[in-house]
Each structure stands twice: as structure tokens, then as C-alpha cells.
Amino acid sequence: MMEQDAATRRAWRDGIGVSVATSAYGVSFGALGVAAGLDVWQTCVLSLLMFTGGSQFAFVGVIATGGWGALPAAIASAALLGVRNVAYGLRMAPVVGGSIARRLTAFPFTIDESTAVALAQSSARARRIGFWVTGIGIYVGWNLFTLLGALLGDVLGDPRAYGLDAAAAAAFLALLWPRLRRVEAVAVGVAAGVVAGVATPLTMPGIPVLIAGAVAIVVAAALPGRRPPRVDDEAMTAGEKP
């Protein structure tokens, strides 16, 4: 019981912490959206309906450089980055559980951070709590800070001067770091990171993420894995009869 309570508290703590850090990043998007030529309401609608930071930044980045004539390219870039959320949805389906209606409700909140927080927990209940707390917390906070950033965009100046462009990446790295305990995981992460870094200046927004994902899958498949524990192995480890 005490272990379950500790796991639940950790899930709440992780979810709230990541929500606060990532929501603050919304100020940056709001300011950049207005700077790219969107008005306040257009910027806010993007956060309300798209709600996937990478896709949103790709969209306004293309609009900023190519204007509204580049709208098809902006949509394509955002869609490419949004593909990863489909994979997250498949992975989170057993975590969310329940009816189809519940899974559909969870879909808008299935993002990088909610997936990472959920998978970092040690029990099924804690994973569900981590997912919902993080997903809903970021959705509310992101939209509020997007509005704030859009309204104060001219006053803030360049959002990168405040380090807000690194807030989400730092929060995600904090969750990822404890999972990099095995050489295989480090190798996959390094390979994907190097490929993404090389591809970024050479390809359109969205492509580096997909290339890095493909490389991660190939490297992970090529590395020798460990035999997964059997049920009787786990039982004997716990001091129980198989």
C-alpha cells in the first residue's frame, strides 16, 4: 500500500512539474506566432486545435519565412511532425484502458510529455495518473500561456532571449535521462540525435524527426537484446512460487 501511495505521489509530482515547465514554453509560441504574421486569435486557435508543440512551431516557422503563400508547405510540415502522435496513441491505448470513448478522449492529450511521464511510472495506476495529469495540465497551461505570449509578443521581444525555446526540451530530457541506464538505449539515442542534427539544416521541418525515428528503430533492432524475464523468473525473484 505504501509503495502504491509513493508511486501515485510521484506520478502527480512528475505530471505537475512537467506541465508547469512545458506550459511556460507556450509564451514562446504565442510571441513567435504573432511575429510570424498571425493575429492573436489565429495563434490561440492553433494551440486549441493542433496542440502539438513541434507541429505548431513548424507551421509558424514556414509561415514566417514564406508567408501565407507557403501555407501548403506549412500544413505538410506540421502533419509530418504530428505523425509521431499516432505511434504514441497506439502505445498509450493499454495504459489509458477503458472504453473506446475514453481512448478517444485521451487522444488530444497524447503528446511527447504525457507519454514520457506515463511510461516513467512504476505501476499501471501511476501511469494512468501521470498521463492524465500531464496531458490535461499542459493543455490548459499551454493555451493560457499562448494567449499571454500573443498579447505580450511585442513587449517580450525575441522569446529565445529568455531561454523559453529550451524549456520543453529540458523537461523532456529530465524524464528521458533516468531511462538511459543501458548501453543499448544510449546508443539508440546518440545515433538518432546525430542523424537529426545533420538532417536539420538539409531538410524541411518535420523530416529530421521522422528520419531520426527510423534510425532509432533500425539501431534498436540491430543491437543485441536481453532475454525478457519469464513469469516464473519474476516470481522466484520476488520470493514466490512460480
From TrEMBL:
Keywords: Cell membrane, Membrane, Transmembrane, Transmembrane helix, Transport
InterPro entries: Brnchd-chn_aa_trnsp_permease
Subcellular localization(s) per the UniProt record: Cell membrane
Pfam families reported for this sequence: AzlC
Top-level taxon in the UniProt lineage: Bacteria
TM segment ranges: 16-38, 58-83, 129-153, 159-176, 183-200, 206-223
Major location (coarse): membrane
Membrane protein topology class: Multi-pass membrane protein
Family from the record: Belongs to the AzlC family.
Protein name: Branched-subunit amino acid permease
